[in-house]
Amino acid sequence: MACLPVLCGLPAKTRIMQTPPAIPVPVLRLPRGPDGLSRGFAPDGRRAPPKPEVPGSPGSPVGRESRESREQQARAALRERYLRSLLAMVGHQVNFTLHEGVHVTAHFGAADLDVANFYVLQLQTPIGVQAEALLRCSDIISYTFKP
Amino acid sequence: MAMRQTPLTCSGHTRPVVDLAFSGITPYGYFLISACKDGKPMLRQGDTGDWIGTFLGHKGAVWGATLNKDATKAATAAADFTAKVWDAVSGDELMTLAHKHIVKTVDFTQDSNYLLTGGQDKLLRIYDLNKPEAEPKEISGHTSGIKKALWCSEDKQILSADDKTVRLWDHATMTEVKSLNFNMSVSSMEYIPEGEILVITYGRSIAFHSAVSLDPIKSFEAPATINSASLHPEKEFLVAGGEDFKLYKYDYNSGEELESYKGHFGPIHCVRFSPDGELYASGSEDGTLRLWQTVVGKTYGLWKCVLPEDSGELAKPKISFPETTEEELEEIASENSDSIYSSTPEVKA
């Protein structure tokens, strides 16, 4: 009769392997279902064909496109100006008006990607000077500086 | 680390899903159409299952649905004795083709110029889509209702299945070339152009035949009655589903059962591999479509892989198609914070 090698008091054949339970494959989200309101085929969807309308009229593709592109250009120009203003603030003293009538002054450092926080230095607060601080933009009502 | 399959459930239909078809791979990705007894076939994005639109117009159960190769047109076959052709981009109905009985199956030629239909009136009809007013060409010969009709051999031949036979017809001469007889009811048929393979299911059997000669290549037996089977584009795997509500995955070369999945709450009526072979879709009596990964755990579509070193973090999802817009990427990123682990297969969209 064959002798099975014994390890830890149990024959090798009866050693039980504890495998970790399989984890389900994670998903980003579930597939979107019908919206229940329309039959779908959204006109602004991926494969929307160009609308065949009479050119020249206000609602025409030419009129609409130039109005949209002008608006887009205006938005882009305003955005660029704002970003440049943030750049111009770096290193300057800025006066912030916060909620509850609080006013603080600091040297501006940087803004984050979404302009949600300002990194500032030498923040002068009613309770002292903070060497470095993050100001939450949602708390700022207005700010001014002299370039 | 072992990964468990997470099927993606596409809800929206209110009755059993009886047919589904993928388009080819287009610059916008690939698409999926589902035929349902609720009479409202739906178009979905193929890799995510996202609903795009519903084709409204049929007045009866839709038994068959198909897309042309570039997913610009859809065709449906219904119990209201009509087949309809639709614009798959706008959702508009393009043509209604009147028949004399329930229509069960529709198929476009590669160039989308012709539509093949078949149904309970036992006739195969070929419509010229450039001349919708013209009478279709008819091929008779079947002795019971036609369940499936497909173009094959570069649209030079036609394959059609009724209850107990599969027949091969020559398109030019409109005559029968060969036929196969079965003892049991044929439940489904799929044609693979590369390699000219025909997949036929009947009873518990999944059979593979040459589409040119109809000679048998091989067949496998499943544990339960199979209603539909599909062969992977690279011919490594096949998937099948049927009356026991389960999906089975087999190695095509060895016939070994590799995986099986519970998930549907009713018999599976149709199962198809996507054109890139990365996923397969199943349609069931329970009114849902489910998408399953071919390689479980791979990052694709809505599934994202977990890197073993970062057990808490999740890898960036791979977006396969260049057409993904910024909004969609932002949406995906913001929803990333709550990853969804489905512990039960039943998750509704």
UniProtKB/TrEMBL annotation, chain A:
Localization: Cytoplasm; Nucleus, Gem; Nucleus, Nucleoplasm
Sm domain sequence ranges: 81-147
Gene Ontology MF: a single term: RNA binding
Gene Ontology terms: cellular component: Gemini of Cajal bodies; SMN-Sm protein complex
Stretch list, region Disordered: 24-75
Feature: compositional bias, Low complexity: 54-63
Alphabetical UniProt keywords: Acetylation, Cytoplasm, mRNA processing, mRNA splicing, Nucleus
Keyword Nucleotide-binding: no
UniProt biased composition (Basic and acidic residues): 64-75
Record-level GO BP terms: spliceosomal snRNP assembly
Gene3D superfamilies registered for this protein in UniProt: 2.30.30.100
A Pfam entry, by short name: Gemin7
Predominant subcellular localization, coarse grouping: cytoplasm
Keyword Acetylation (UniProt): yes
SUZ-C domain residues: 1-45
Function: The SMN complex catalyzes the assembly of small nuclear ribonucleoproteins (snRNPs), the building blocks of the spliceosome, and thereby plays an important role in the splicing of cellular pre-mRNAs. Most spliceosomal snRNPs contain a common set of Sm proteins SNRPB, SNRPD1, SNRPD2, SNRPD3, SNRPE, SNRPF and SNRPG that assemble in a heptameric protein ring on the Sm site of the small nuclear RNA to form the core snRNP (Sm core).
Family listed: Belongs to the gemin-7 family.
Quaternary structure and interacting proteins, as annotated: Part of the core SMN complex that contains SMN1, GEMIN2/SIP1, DDX20/GEMIN3, GEMIN4, GEMIN5, GEMIN6, GEMIN7, GEMIN8 and STRAP/UNRIP. Part of the SMN-Sm complex that contains SMN1, GEMIN2/SIP1, DDX20/GEMIN3, GEMIN4, GEMIN5, GEMIN6, GEMIN7, GEMIN8, STRAP/UNRIP and the Sm proteins SNRPB, SNRPD1, SNRPD2, SNRPD3, SNRPE, SNRPF and SNRPG. Interacts with GEMIN6; the interaction is direct. Interacts with STRAP/UNRIP; the interaction is direct. Interacts with GEMIN8; the interaction is direct. Interacts with SNRPB, SNRPD2, SNRPD3 and SNRPE; the interaction is direct.
The protein, known as: Gem-associated protein 7
Organism: Lynx canadensis
Lineage of origin: Eukaryota, Metazoa, Chordata, Craniata, Vertebrata
From TrEMBL, chain B:
A GO cellular-component term linked to this record: SMN complex
Annotated keywords: Kinase, mRNA processing, mRNA splicing, Receptor, Repeat, Transferase, WD repeat
WD repeats: 55-96, 96-137, 139-179, 261-293
Designated name of the protein: Serine-threonine kinase receptor-associated protein
Pfam families assigned to the protein according to its UniProt record, in alphabetical order: WD40
MF terms (GO), sorted A to Z: kinase activity; RNA binding
PROSITE patterns hit by this protein: WD_REPEATS_2, WD_REPEATS_REGION
Keyword Repeat assigned: yes
One GO process term, biological-process aspect: negative regulation of transforming growth factor beta receptor signaling pathway
Feature: compositional bias, Acidic residues: 324-333
Source organism (scientific name): Acinonyx jubatus (Cheetah)
Positions of the UniProt region annotated as Disordered: 316-349
Family listed: Belongs to the WD repeat STRAP family.
Entry superkingdom: Eukaryota
Compositionally biased intervals (Polar residues): 334-349
